Amino acid sequence: MSTPIRQTLEVPVAEGSDGERYSLRMGPQHPATHGVLRVDLELDGETIVECTPQVGYLHRGFEKLAESRTHTQNLILTDRLDYIAAMANNVGYCVAVERLLGIEAPLRARYIRTIVAEMSRLCSHLLWLATHALDIGAMTVFLYCFREREILLDLFEELCGARLTFSYTRIGGVRQDVTRHFVDELQRFLDLFPSKIEEYETLIDTNRIWLKRTVGVGRISGEEALALGLTGACLRGSGVDYDVRKHEPYDAYGLVDFEVPLGTEGDIYARYRCRMEELHQSVRIIQQCLDQLPPGPIVSEDAPDLVMPLKPVAKVKPETSRFGTATITLDRSKTLYPDGDVYVATEVPKGELGFYFVSDGTSRPYRMHIRSPSFIHIAALGVIARGELIADLIANIGSLDVVLGESDR
Amino acid sequence: MEPMAIAQRLQAEFPDEVLESYTYQGQTAVVIRSGRVRDILQWLRDTPEIRMNHLRSLCGVDNSRHRVDPNLKRFEVVYHLYSIEHRHGLRVRAEVGETDPVIDSVVSLWPGANWLERETWDLVGIRFTGHPDLRRVLLPDDWEGHPLRKEYPLRGKGEWAGLVDLQATAKELDKHSFDPDNPPPATAPSPARKKGQALKFLNEEEGA
What we know:
The complex is a heterodimer of chains A (409) and B (208).
Chain A: E1 22-26, E2 38-44, E3 47-54, H1 62-66, H2 75-79, H3 86-101, H4 107-136, H5 139-160, E4 169-170, E5 173-174, H6 180-204, H7 208-214, H8 222-228, H9 233-236, H10 244-247, H11 268-292, E6 339-348, E7 351-360, E8 367-371, H12 373-384, H13 390-400, H14 404-408
Antiparallel strand pairs in A: 1-2, 2-3, 4-5, 6-7, 7-8
Helix pairs in contact in A: 3-4, 4-5, 4-11, 4-13, 5-6, 6-11
Chain B: H1 3-13, E1 18-24, E2 27-33, H2 37-46, E3 54-62, E4 75-83, E5 88-96, E6 102-104, H3 113-123, E7 127-129, H4 161-174
Parallel strand pairs in B: 2-5, 6-7
Antiparallel strand pairs in B: 1-2, 3-4, 4-5
C-alpha cells in the first residue's frame, strides 16, 4: 500500500494572485472552532496554503491525574472529556475497566447503558448539526435541534440528576435503575423524533446554499481517512465500514439489530448524511433496548468494593459493608486488581474512544492512555483543509465534529 | 486469524526482535526490541492475511515504578493495531532504554501517527527519529520536563514561566487602573475667567 496522503500537495496559485502570502491566526476564541482551537493559516488570496492547528488550551493532565486516583474516582474525569456526550464516555470507561478487572455487568445494566449511550449520540449529533449548520449560515436548524436536545437533557436529569456531567454508570453496572416514568417519556420521544429528523432534512437537505457549501468540499478518500486515523462518521462518510459497535460489540450492541450507514464521496455532505442516518439507527437501537429490557440487578456482584451496595447502607454493619469506595476500606480481594494491560475501544459519537490501561496490581491505574478521536481528527484538519478556500475551513472543522475537551484531555 | 497465530508468525519472521508474547483478557500482545519497529509494523500492515491497516492508538509508558515487574526496560512505546478487513488486533510493545530514549517514527506508514508521536514526546519524552515535525503539542513549547514520567511530581514543578510573565504584565497594567476608594489627584482646574470678560455664545449672532 502506497502512502495515499497529501504530504506535498502542490497548491494551485489562485487566479490573479501575485504569489504573496500572508498569515492569519484563527482562534483560539473564534466561535466556529467549537472550543479553544487555534488554527495558524498561510493564505494565498483566499486559498489555504498551509494550515497548522494548535491545541492544548484545555489540557488538564487527566492521564497524569488518573495515576493518583482509583479506578472508581477516575470516572468523573471522563465526563470532562467530550462534555457534549459525557454519557458515552462514562459507558466507554466502565466497559474498559470491567474488561481489565474481568467482571461483567448484569444484562439489565448493559441494556440501560446501551440506551443512555445512544441517547448521548442523539444529543451529540443534534448539537453537531445545530452548530455546523449555524457555522455555514443556517440559523433555523440550530433552534430546532436544541428543542429536541432539551427533551433528552430533561430525560437525563430525571435519570441521574445531572444534565451534562452525568457520572451515571458504575464499574460493573449503573448507579440507578430506570423509572417507569422515564421509560414512558423516552418512548414518547422515540415516537416523536423521526418526524423531527424529517423536519431538519426539509430545512437543509436540498437547500441550495447548504449543497453549495458541502458537496465536494473537504473530500477525503477512504484510504487517506484510514491512514490519518479518522474514525466514526468521518471514516464511514468515505465508505470504510468500521464501527466498533459492530466490530467488537460491547454492552447490548451484539443483541440488537442496526445498520451502519456508509457514504461514498467522503465530502462534508456524505458525513452529514451518515450522521443523519445514525440518528435513525440510534432511535432503532433504543427502541429495541426498551422492548427487550430484561428484569434483574443493575450492578454486578463480582466487584464488591467497586459498586454501591444494593441494600440500604444504614442496615449494613460497617465491618461487613460493601460501601468500600467512599468510607471504609474492606477486605479487598488481592486478585481483583490484576497485573496486566488492556485496550478497549467504544464507539462514541465522535469516533473510536479507546482506553489503554496498564495495571500493576493496585487499585489505581499504573498508566491510563485515552485515545481520543477529536485529537486525531484535528491533526487531520491540517491535511484536509490545505488547498481549499478559507471559508470552507469553517465547514471542515464543523464536519470533523471535534470537541476540544476531549482533544486536550 | 487468531491473534496468537499472528504473534507466532511474527516471531518466525523476526526471531531476533520478538522477545515475548502473551494474552490477557483475550487480547494478545507482543514485546519487541525497538530497533526494527518500523519494519515489523510495516510487515503487519502489508502482509495480505494480516493487513492491520488501522493504527488505533500509540502511547508511551514509563515503567520505572512498576511494582510487579521491576526488570522492565525504562520506557516502552505501545502500538495498537487493528485490521478492519479481518477484524483482529494486536498490541505491539516496543522497549526503549533509559538513556536517550529514541525509537523510529512510523509517520511514513500512518500519517495519523504524527500527532500521537508528538504527544508521546511531549508527555513521556521519547524521541522519534524520522518524524517530520517533532514539537510539543499539548504543552507550551518552553515547558520543562515530561509530565507523564513517574518522577515528575503530580502538582508540577512550580509555575510555567509563561504564566509568571503574564501575571507580571497584568500586575503592571493594574497600576494604571482606576481605584474608586483611592482616586487619583484631580487634574489642574481650568483657568478662571477674568473679571468682566464677556461670555461668548456660539449660537448667537454677533453683536445681537
